[in-house]
Amino acid sequence: MSMLQRIFPNVSARMDEFYQCTMDTLAMIAIVGSIAFVLSLLIAVVLTTTKKGGLYENAVIYQVFDKVINLFRSIPFVILATTMIPLTRLVMGTAIGLRGAVFPLIIGIVPFFSRQIESSLLGVDTGLLEAAQSIGLTRPQIIWKVVLRESIPGIAKVTSITIVNLLALTAIIGIVGGGGLGDFAIRYGFQRYMFDASLAVVLVYLVLIYIVETVGKLVISESSHG
User: Fold this and answer.
1) What is the pLDDT of residue 32?
2) Residues whose CB falls within 8 Å of the CB of residue 31, separated by 6 or more in sequence, listed in order
3) Can you tell me the distance from the alpha carbon of 46 to that of 64, in angstroms, rounded to the nearest whole number?
4) Mean pLDDT of the residues in the chain
5) I need a labelling partner for 37 at 20 to 30 A (CA). Which of 18, 26, 191, 196 fits?
6) Which band of pLDDT confidence, cut at 50, 70 and 90, is reported for residue 109?
7) What is the rounded radius of gyration, in angstroms, for the C-alpha atoms of the chain?
8) Structural domains in the chain?
9) Contacts 24+ apart (CB under 8 A), 194-203
10) Whole-number Å distance between alpha carbons of 181 and 170
11) Is residue 202's pLDDT more than 90?
């Protein structure tokens, strides 16, 4: 018997399922992370430009986005995911497995991510904006060439933080049948008292978090020097 089988007997007996759950979790991160990044960046730009004194100041638009984001941020994710099951079924065709996890994860992470990116965009030196306006750049050019470009290190930092948070949500989604490693840990580690199943899931999450944080630091370092 190998060391792996001795330490993780229950996981070894279900290695194909454990591997599939790991792949499902990685797929959640890739799919949800990509969609959430685009949506959150757009929302953050809207919030930044429509606020008082912004390039496209508009109190109505700002208040709508601001209140909706605050509303969803105030709801604990497990309650949000449970409440959204009927809507998830309507949108995705199912509320279980990888497919059923994507929609609630996006709704759960976008409000947080939007606020994080908004903070990065608001950190751009106002002197740079004034200089850009003085040389005749249009508002879209200022957003693209000044605001977003100067915010790259900050956006890279909050993206790393958000992906770590997203990893936590992928574990929570297992409670409502969302699949992935969280589901594996609940079904075997919690419901059947297989401690090695829970331990294996924890170790995988620790490795994933380490990779995300390491890559994030490299991107931040490169973009800061750039």
Assistant:
1) 96
2) 102
3) 11
4) 91
5) 18
6) very high
7) 21
8) 14-124+131-225 (1.10.3720.10)
9) 194/10, 194/11, 196/7, 196/8, 196/9, 196/10, 196/11, 197/8, 197/10, 197/11, 197/14, 199/8, 200/8, 200/11, 200/18, 201/171
10) 8
11) yes
